[in-house]
Amino acid sequence: MKKNKNIALLVVTLLISIPFMSLAQQAASISISGEVLTPLTLTKADLANYKSASHKSKDKDGKEHEYKGVALVEVLEKAGVTLGGKLRGENLAKVVLVQAADGYEVVYSLPELDPEFSNNTVLLVAEKDGAPLAAGEGPFRLVAPQDKKQARWIREVRSIKVVFVK
Amino acid sequence: MNNNTHISPQQSNRKGFRWLLLSIAVVSVVISGLNTDDNQPEPYPLVYPANFGGRITIPADNPTTREGVALGRMLFYEKKLSADNTLSCGSCHEQKLAFTDGKAFSVGVDKSLTARNSMALVNLLWVRNFFWDGRSPGLEEQAVFPMTNPHEMGQSMEASVRKLQQVPVYGTMFKKAFGTANIDADKIRKALAQFERTLISADSPYDRYLAGTYQPTAQELRGMNLFMEPPAPEKGIRGANCGHCHGGPKTFKELFHNNGLDATPKDSGREAVSNQAEDKGRFRVPTLRNIALTDPYMHDGRFKTLAEVLEHYNEHIQESPTLSSFLRGTSNEKGGKTLLLNQTEKADIIAFLQMLTDKTFINNPAFSDPNKSLKQ
């Protein structure tokens, strides 16, 4: 009897919580999709699984900031993007399309991210001066130290998609 | 494409008449020679300036054709698509108001008000996420919403199909457009979308300025610079940075921002679509094409005039966790919290906004109610 009552209670609780579950805010994350072997959804906690990388640079205000995160190429490798030995032939006609929460978009080519092609490292960062990136800039941002203009230091990154240029 | 239009209607004498018959025959031969299948609808040329860019959306299964557009135009103005035969798309999207309706909220068949302000239908070819919150991914999908929403046209697609089946001209028009007189919901959506894709506005004084055929007044030029430039007080550059969100030759970029209307937004906007708290109070940045004609302004029509809009951006931006970072601390004075434009500068920006009114677009007979133009 008591057991049944407990089960009934559980069912009722579950039923009640269904609408809340679907309404629940998703934890801030980015998706890696498109021409990948394994689509990924990354949260800030997941970044700890990658080798950390950082970059110091002066902002518009002239102050120096330290950005901390991981090399973007490592995340793409994890997703099974054609890099390294596989970055040849038609794979050279793929681009990485990065989209921000406000719809802003930029692209990188695979060779400019791949250490076998380039000495530059584009970073996917989540911290600035030891603190999480502020709203409007984070939770994720790209840092491309080789770019003189910061237009591709895209803020509020929501999705990274590898696509063929048709 | 249609060579018949080159034949003067004044040819009344016999010889002329014979020539006319002969040339019609020649033209028909040429046309039938070009078309392998006479029943194929003819492609509709979508013409726009190169600086608009080619990032347009036309689904592979709904190419834009002259016949499809003609049908879509009829349907756009067809009141039978509403439950009580009183409303068409054109009721809330009037051509003379750049396809808006001049109201803060529109009245639906059930006499209730829409939740948001009617949007201008212009240069939709370049839009990828429709509505104020970007919830609809394509014109074909979008069209079903106003037709079936009880607070707008309030009629099921099945009922619309039945009503159209009773009007003989539609059988003919659907056959011309889609090769079959069989009317269904899918074809209604497709035809409406085809017509909407033709609503291209590219002949405002600003377009002509970009094309090198219009010399703006000194005030318009000052307004244009202020509109486009971010302020840089340390370098002595004054600006309003509107172009960051509203710039480019189309004065439309598909972006979503919270432009500081409310500290606690009543309408959560994009958040309801993305389910992410960072999107609270974010709305699609609307086009500023024909903006002088599309008052009242914002998703809830809260501002009646452009002067009120300028006051908002200059003096009344509301701080909130999701306020766009591009509107925070942007100022013409060192350390200033707001834009701090003066009265002349605000008037200059309004003069520029008036350069975006495209009279060719609002008077284009191809976009008007076909039934009204027949009667004229």
Automatic annotation (TrEMBL), chain B:
Gene Ontology molecular-function annotations: cytochrome-c peroxidase activity; electron transfer activity; heme binding; metal ion binding
Keywords, sorted A to Z: Heme, Iron, Metal-binding, Oxidoreductase, Periplasm, Peroxidase, Signal
Reported cofactor(s): heme
Tagged with keyword Lyase: no
Cited Pfam families: CCP_MauG
Cofactor note: Binds 2 heme groups.
PTM remark: Binds 2 heme groups per subunit.
Annotated binding of heme c 2, by residue: 242, 245-246
Domain Cytochrome c: 218-357
Protein name: Cytochrome-c peroxidase
Organism field: Emticicia agri
